[in-house]
Design a protein that fits this description.
The structure holds 2 protein chains of 2 kinds. Chain A is built from 10 helices and 10 strands. By secondary structure, chain A is α/β, with parallel strands linked by helices. Chain A has one domain: Rossmann fold (3-Layer(aba) Sandwich). The longest helix of chain A is centred in the middle third of the chain and has 14 residues. Chain B has 2 domains: about 45 residues; about 230 residues, Orthogonal Bundle (MetI-like fold), CATH 1.10.3720.10. Chain B is globular and about 70 Å long. Classes of the chains: A alpha/beta, B mainly alpha. Chains A and B meet through helix 2 and helix 6 of A and helix 7 and helix 8 of B.
């Protein structure tokens, strides 16, 4: 990465999940996840559909509780602080833990520039110089600047799918999060765009902690330092990516990565 | 086989013909009304009509300037009352769809939509005219404003509900509080559709006569005080149409033409706004 966002450097943090349970109404979707995500690494979460991997991601930045009838228990430590502490404000938690979704979701009424600036301007930042600077840094960090610098005021939805996803990454980076959660960020993209997102995830891990959910095992193998395998709401196995893929310790992990199910 | 196919094709043509005729039947009254209004009303339309006050009874000449302005004033008053309540209420219904308050409000809005407009006039009469002891533009604006609320509320609810959940999540995940997400992200995304709903609502109340009979009351002169009776096109048309004077009859037609034109312009603006709505599906 040529230009790093200065704000991104030197304050990054790991995550520690401690006995996290999650429910959708009666459905017990996560059954006691304990997992340490190291800082400035890419950690992949893999598993078959419905295993709870996205739910786990959404528990980290307190998005899960926004679903009606959804509940969470347990602790998620961001550095030393429990994001589920009574005194913790979910809004502030989400400022520190950014998120990129499966389907690119730029704000449909906003220009490319305003999309990236949204996290700042909607939070009341009035210093236009500063916003301009951060928008450029974020777009560069998301490897999108060169493609959009001449049309910053075109609608964000005018970009291609892969560019829209990088726009969403830039938008998340603009509020200088310490952690970036990526929920199957490339599953709707063509192979070339997928590769760009993967490269980007690796580069960003120089500065911030990345957690990426994917159902694509090759992707997990290519992009991540650590991998956790989820099945039926439980963390079956967790370790360095290379170990997990070459010598899995659990039979179910082996069955999954060798394609026997899922 | 061959014969069955022919029968089927014939049935198809008959049904297509019937639907075409029904469509024509829908359009015919509109064009007949417009054509008739234009042919009878245009002759009385002149510069005086738009600039002068009504003449003395039976005297030819004069215009409806005060009624045109009065109608605009009443629509503005109704908008000031009805639009904020309607838009914010509709947003609430969409964002908190299953609270008891939402169910009640939704039901109330649907009932209100069906209440005869003269009853709305009565309501404003009891609420404002009786305590103040005189008719006023304000009471007319309130009557129309209350009529505007359910239309705006329900269309806002529908369009805001169409805003994809992913847009809300994008904003919340950036650490934008829920209220700000609703006001600064969700409503702007639905803005053009909301404007369309407002326009359609305004067009509907612009032609209302009954709620104004004992609220705005009508006025033969200029009125700059919203606490005094004010003229309105529908009232003026009514008054002129039941008068014994030929010149007033012609002016009533001209007034109807102007009123219909205003409504058409508002509706066309609404269509233009709808075209600018970002795609929500």
């Amino acid at each position: 990465m040529q230009t790093r966002t200065p704000a991104l450097i030197d304050h990054t943090t790991g995550i520690q999940a401690q006995d996290v349970h999650a429910w959708f109404d009666r459905l017990h979707a996560l059954r006691g996840i304990s997992m340490t995500v190291p800082e400035r690494k890419v950690t992949a979460v893999i598993g078959p559909s419905g295993c709870g991997k996205s739910t786990f991601l959404r528990c980290i930045n307190r998005m899960h509780e926004l679903v009606p009838e959804a509940r969470v228990s347990g602790r998620v430590l961001l550095g030393q602080e429990n994001v589920y502490d009574e005194a913790a404000d979910p809004v502030l938690v989400r400022r520190r833990i950014g998120m990129v979704f499966q389907k690119a979701n730029p704000f449909p009424t906003m220009s490319i520039y305003n999309n990236v600036a949204a996290g700042l301007t909607l939070a009341g930042e009035r210093d236009r110089r500063k916003v301009e600077q951060i928008v450029e840094q974020s777009l560069r960090a998301a490897a999108l600047w060169d493609e959009v610098k001449d049309r910053l005021h075109k609608p964000g939805t005018s970009l291609s799918g892969g560019q829209q996803q990088r726009l969403c990454i830039a938008r998340a980076l603009a509020v200088s999060p310490e952690v970036l959660l990526m929920d199957e960020p490339a599953s709707a993209l063509d192979p070339a765009s997928t590769l760009r997102i993967e490269e980007l995830a690796r580069e960003l891990a120089n500065d911030i902690t990345i957690v990426i959910v994917t159902h694509n095992m090759q992707q997990a193998a290519r992009v991540s330092d650590f991998t956790g395998f989820f099945l039926d709401g439980e963390l079956i196995e967790y370790g360095p990516t290379n170990d997990l893929f070459t010598k899995p310790r659990d039979r179910r992990t082996e069955d999954y990565i060798t394609g026997r199910f899922g | 086989m061959q014969r069955r196919y022919l029968v089927r094709r014939w049935k198809n043509r008959v049904m297509a013909g019937v639907t075409f005729l029904c469509t024509l039947a829908v359009l015919t009254p509109l064009f007949l009304i417009l054509a008739f209004l234009a042919s009878t009303g245009l002759s009385a339309l002149n510069w005086d009509f738009f600039t002068k006050l009504p003449g003395a009874a039976g005297e030819p000449g004069g215009g409806m300037a005060n009624a045109i302005v009065g109608t605009l004033v009443l629509i503005t008053l109704a908008g000031v009352i009805g639009i904020p309540i309607g838009v914010l209420g509709g947003t609430f219904l969409s964002e908190y769809p299953n609270t008891r308050l939402s169910h009640t409000a939704r039901f109330a809005a649907d009932v209100m939509n069906g209440i005869p407009s003269i009853v709305m006039g009565l309501f404003a009469y009891v609420l404002i005219v009786l305590p103040m002891h005189h008719f006023s533009a304000l009471s007319g604006g309130v009557a129309l404003g209350i009529m505007l609320i359910p239309t705006v509320m329900r269309t806002t609810e529908e369009i805001v509900r169409l805003v994809p959940q992913s847009v809300r999540e994008a904003s919340l995940a950036l650490g934008i509080p829920i209220w700000k997400t609703t006001l600064r992200v969700v409503i702007p995304t639905a803005a053009a559709g909301i404007v369309t709903g407002i326009m359609v609502g305004l067009a509907r109340i612009a032609g209302e006569t009954a709620p104004l009979l004992f609220t705005a009351f009508g006025n033969r002169f200029w009125n700059r005080d919203i606490l005094q009776p004010i003229a309105a096109l529908p009232l003026q048309i009514f008054a002129y149409a039941i008068s014994p004077f030929d010149d007033w009859h012609r002016q009533a037609w001209a007034g109807a033409l102007v009123l219909v034109t205003i409504v058409l312009i508002v509706n066309i603006t609404a269509r233009y706004a709808a075209g600018r709505q970002v795609k929500l599906r």
